[in-house]
Each structure stands twice: as C-alpha cells, then as structure tokens.
Amino acid sequence: MKAFKWAVVLLLTSVFETSLSAQEINEIIVYSNPYKKSVDKVISTVDILDQDEISSSSDLSLGSLLAKLPGLDSSGYGPSVGQPIIRGLGGFRIGVLNNGMSTGDIAYTGDDHSNGVPIHNLERIEVLKGPATLRYGPYSSSGVVNSFNKLMTSGENETSLTLGYGDSADENSASLFTRMGNFALSAYYEDADNMRIPTHAESVAQLQSEGEEIPADRSQDAENTFGENQGISFGGNFGNDRTTLSFLIAADDKTYGVPGHSHGHGEDHDGDDHDGDDHDEDDHDGEEHGEEESVQIDSEHRTFQARLSHDLSGNLFNSIRADLSHSSFEQEEMEGAETGIQYEQDESNFRVEASANIGNWQTTFGSNYRDMDLKVISESHDDGDGDGDGDGHGQYLPESDRSEIGLFFLSQLENESWLIELAGRYDSIEQEAFREEHDDDDDDEGDHGDEDHESHGAIDHNLTNLSIGLAKKFDGGLLFGGSLSHTERAPSQVELFAGGKHVAAQREEFGDEDLNKEKSLSTEIYLRKKWGDSSLRLAIFDNDYEDFIYLQKRAGSEDEFDFLQQDAEISGLEFSYDTSVNFSEYKLLTSLRYSLIEGELDNGSNLPRIPPEKLMLGLSSKVGEVLYKVDFTHNSKQDDIGLNELPTDSFTQVDLGAEWTPSSFNGLKVSALIRNATDEEIRRHTSAIKDLVPESGRDIRLSLGFSF
C-alpha cells in the first residue's frame, strides 16, 4: 500500500471520533433509481454532480468533467474529446445515457470520438456502479453515466444566458436556455484555437524511447487541438398528476482536430503509404512534402427522445413508463484534404417498464429493444486492384447491424434494519457484418458505388446478468453492505470486425469474429456514514474477468493492433469525505477524494492504461457575495504498465476559482477560474495520446451569466 492509503486509514480512524457542529445535509435523490430514492438508501455506488458543479467546471468534455470523482478518469484525446473511464474501463463497457436513454453516438468505436452529451445546460449527472446498471442494457457492465438536461422536465418560466472565455486556446463560448410554458429551448456555441501547453509536446519517456534529444522546456501551442462545437435542442413536457408526456429534439455539430498524429510527407510510414503508392513529389495533388498532414473530425448528431409515464397508484402496478429514442450520427475523419473514413450510424431504442409492490418488495421489470445500423466507408482502403484489401490498409470496419432485445427486473426491500436489492437481466444480441466485394474488371479505384455486399453471417450472443446487494443499517447514520454481480458482455462491432486503418488513431486495428463473450464476477464492500453536515463513503471492489477483451500492439509492429482475450482481474478502493465547519462569518466546505485501481492479466502482465493513485482535495467558502474555491488533484506516477506502454509521471493540478453573485443585480453571476494555476505538465495515463501531447497549461477562464 502506498502513502496515500495510509492517509486514508488515518482519516478513517479520526472521522468516527470527530463531532462537528453543523446543519443537516440536504437529502440527495438518485433519479436513475426507478423509485427516486435518497442516495443513502441505494445499494449501488452512486456519484452525483449537480448543476452548479457542472457549470462552474468549464470543462469541454464529459470525461474531463467526471475525472474529479473517485474511481473515474478521462480517456483524453485533446480538449474536445474525453470519454469517461469508470474503475479503469471505458468504451462499450460503459453506458453513456442522456435522460436515461442511449445517446446514439459512435464513441465506442474509438477514444478519438466524442460522446453525444453536450454538457451545456445539464441539471445533473449520475454515475452508477452496481446492480442498478442492469436496468439500462448489456453495454453497462462497468457502470452507467446518466446525464439529465432541463428540456424534458417541467418548471417555472426562465431565461438564462452564459458567455465564456478561456485564454489558453482563445476560446469563446455562449449558451442559452429558455423555458416558456410547456416548452424549452437550449442552444450553445464554442470556438477554440490550438491550446497552449507548458512544455514540448512529446513526453520525456517517448523521446527517450525514440532516441531523441530532450528539448528545453518551452511554452508552445499544441498543433491540431482546435475545436468548434454548436447545437440546439427543443423539448416539452405535458401532463397532469397521473400522466406525463415529454420529448426532446436535438441537433449537434462538431469540428475538431485530433492532436498528436501529424506527420511529414517525406517520412517513412512503415507501410502506411496511401493507395499503395510510394510518396513522391507528385503525391497529394501537388502538396509539398515538408508540410504536415493533420487529422480533423467533422460530425453531425441528430436525436429524438420521447417518454410517456402514467401513475397507476391504487392498482397492482404503481406506474408504467415507455421510453423511445432515435438518433442519426454522421462523421468524417479528414486526413489532410482527403476523407479517410466516413461513419454513418442510425440507432433506435425502445424500453418499457412497470413498477409494482409485491409484498414488501418494490419491483420494476421491463423490456428493451435496441437496433444499431453502422456503415463505415474507408476511402483509401483499396489499392486499385479491386480486391478490397491492398496496400491501402483494408476497410477499417464493414457495414454492420446490431440488434438487442432484453428482459430485466430490479427488486428492492427496505425495513428498519436492512436494505436488499436483487437484479437480473437476459439479452439476446445478434450482430452481422457486410463486407464490400468489388468487381475486378469494372470497379475503379476509390469508387464505392457499385460494390456488392457479402454477409459474414450472424454472430449471436445470449447474455445472463445477475446481481444481489445487501446492506445493514446501524445507529448513527452508518450503512455497511456489499454486492455480488455476474455480468456478461458481447464483443462490440469493432472488436469483432475491425480490419484496417483507423485514420484518426493512426493505427491499424484487427478484430476477431471468434471472440467469446466477456464474463465477470464482481464483488464490492462499502461503508457509508452521515452525521450532521458530514458524510463518508468507502468502497472496495474486485472484478474477476473471464475472456477479457483488450487491444494490444503486435510484436515488431509500430501501428498494427489486435483485439485479444485473456482472463484478467481489476480491483481497487474509492474513498470520499465531505464536511463543513461553521465559523463566525462563513462556512468552510471540505471534500476529500481518493481512488486506487490495479489491473492484471492472467499471464501476470499489467492491464494497459489503468489510472494511477489519485488524491483530490477541494475547499470552498462563501464570504459575503463571493464564493471562493481551491481544488488540488494529485495523480501519482504510473509505472505498473502494460506491454508496450510507457510510464507516466506524476502531476499535481491546482485550480483556483471565484464566483460573485451580487444581491443588487438579481440573476447575475460573474465567475473566474484559473485551471492548472501552476502551469503543470499534465499527462493522464488513461489517454491514448498522453505521450504525444499533454493537457493544457495555465488557463484563465472567465464567464458572465444572466438569468431572469
């Protein structure tokens, strides 16, 4: 155990002996729970960010926003992209939801793709780990991130406008929310140039591995880290005391650079020449070889959501609810002036559930259906001979269909002494891929209009997921319990069917259609205590995986990766402690967060990209009309590395903030935030590009908000 663990032990010892004079904490409700229970009465481990915490963070990605929570981190692929990592895992093991429904994005296909959750005008975010995740589908074996906006809820008429600026990337942003009667409208825009970084782009470990000289530290702009995002959403809520109908229509467009992968045309690409030709002075329509090719991503996301709920109080069932969502997602990965890969995905979801009291048990059961049609066009995959697998790297992903149908139940019992939770789920999943078959005589290079499609045949998986949770209530606000879960996950389309160059990631990925479903046996023991204005949470977990799926670089290759399977184990500890102390003129709020995660494959090697120890301390106090905040985040060095990984140095990030809400100007809020105030070199081990570009250096951020 490392030093930080001893600090936690000491704190745990003292916390139970400490009595603070303070007011009672306001009850926090978990909306992802079908019965809207208090967080203290939910067996699942739940972390919650409210609207104030979201708006004051000034984060651009969902992953970086959630990285402040214990056991969470970000995949980090530049300032515009950061997918959440829960207990060391992400991608298709995490269900990212908006209003309890799938976002319909393609983030599961790669770290370079952003989640379809605009963080503007969110009311709250709930992160669930444990039995309750079975309610949301077979793609949530590691956890669920459920975000809630204000468009599908009722409320008083209001209008708010927020303007923001960040100096690190000359970033400008604006967001608007307005509600009139039963309808609400939200819109946002943000535009940022390349971000400033405090040192050279490549890490010392990367430069040393390449035998390169380490340049003198210098501040510079990180190439290709720009971003431009915009979106508009419209929603409504109708109903009475028993029946409610709500809907959401949203359109979001993003353009951003993918950092860390530019290359000079004159360099040796180790077999990555385009269209099977050697690079010469005439390539690329006259482009000069000394110029760098960058990767840019353009995406369009369209979403429709609807929900119908009806109160059946007085009958066998308490309530019934139906959720419907449809999304279309289009994305282009541009390599220089050429399109490398085009993605087109249509996704439809339908879920119906009913709640009833069966004896003393509150029970919810239901069914869901999900259909995903994914089409991927690799413009440079053919070398001209018509076979579809030449030196142009092969087609990255074939067109594929994935359909899921599931049945689930969640049952909870609470009395004066115990909390019990049972959950079960059964899913039938069918995936089918269609590869392009070209006519050798007629098909021209790059012409994809006349190809035939040949099915690989359907790959079926039947999944059974079971979970049980038990907790004992003690006097003094103490809850002690644990859970045991068996989960199964079907391989994703990428893990099964990948077979060529992933342009934005600048590597070739190869799936395996013979991959088995992934199984895990997960145990968790936790302790929670609340007294006065203080609360403490401790969780210890262990996940044993059978046929764990992971991506590994081929031996002797620089850019070829395979999806492999092997048994694995992930274990860890999460700790949080919140309290407030009243002084004569102000109240000091303190939060302490700690997490430790370890991952190991069956052959004894470490799992790749496991986050290191993390300790976070937050202090805030309102003096007069100004709220002051100081946040310290320390990530330890990560040298328990996987095969072909490089170690990551430790860093300590310091954020300073202030918010002024003048009483003389009702509805006005002026905020200032200095992120990374010490201009630290920040590289997250969970980021696939952490050795190619660090995170932003010192960033002074200002915002001005009006509400009326």
Describe the fold and architecture.
This protein has a single domain, classed as Maltoporin, Chain A (Beta Barrel), CATH 2.40.170.20. 6% of the residues lie in helices and 53% in strands. The protein is built from 6 helices and 34 strands. It has helices at 3-15, 51-57, 62-66, 204-209, 283-286, 493-497; strands spanning 45-50, 72-74, 84-86, 94-98, 101-102, 122-129, 143-149, 158-166, 171-180, 183-192, 196-197, 220-221, 227-239, 243-264, 292-311, 317-335, 338-358, 361-378, 399-414, 418-437, 452-455, 459-474, 478-489, 499-502, 507-510, 518-531, 534-553, 560-582, 587-601, 614-623, 626-635, 651-660, 668-675, 699-707. The strands form 4 sheets. The protein has a 22-stranded antiparallel barrel. Mean pLDDT is 84; it is low at 6-25, 262-291, 381-393 and 438-451.
**Under CATH, the topology is which?**
Maltoporin, Chain A
Shape: globular
Return residue spans where pLDDT drops below 50 for at least 5 consecutive residues.
6-25, 262-291, 381-393, 438-451
Query: How far do the termini sit from each other?
Result: 52 Å
Beta-strand percentage range: over 45%
> Tell me, what is the CATH class?
Mainly Beta
Total number of β-strand segments?
Answer: 34
CATH architecture: Beta Barrel
Cα gyration radius (Å):
25 Å
Largest sheet: 22 strands, antiparallel, barrel
Helix content: under 10%
Give me some keywords for this one:
708 residues, 6 helices, 22-stranded antiparallel β-barrel, globular, five-stranded mixed β-sheet, mainly beta, Maltoporin, Chain A
Topology (elements, then pairings):
Elements: H1 3-15, E1 45-50, H2 51-57, H3 62-66, E2 72-74, E3 84-86, E4 94-98, E5 101-102, E6 122-129, E7 143-149, E8 158-166, E9 171-180, E10 183-192, E11 196-197, H4 204-209, E12 220-221, E13 227-239, E14 243-264, H5 283-286, E15 292-311, E16 317-335, E17 338-358, E18 361-378, E19 399-414, E20 418-437, E21 452-455, E22 459-474, E23 478-489, H6 493-497, E24 499-502, E25 507-510, E26 518-531, E27 534-553, E28 560-582, E29 587-601, E30 614-623, E31 626-635, E32 651-660, E33 668-675, E34 699-707
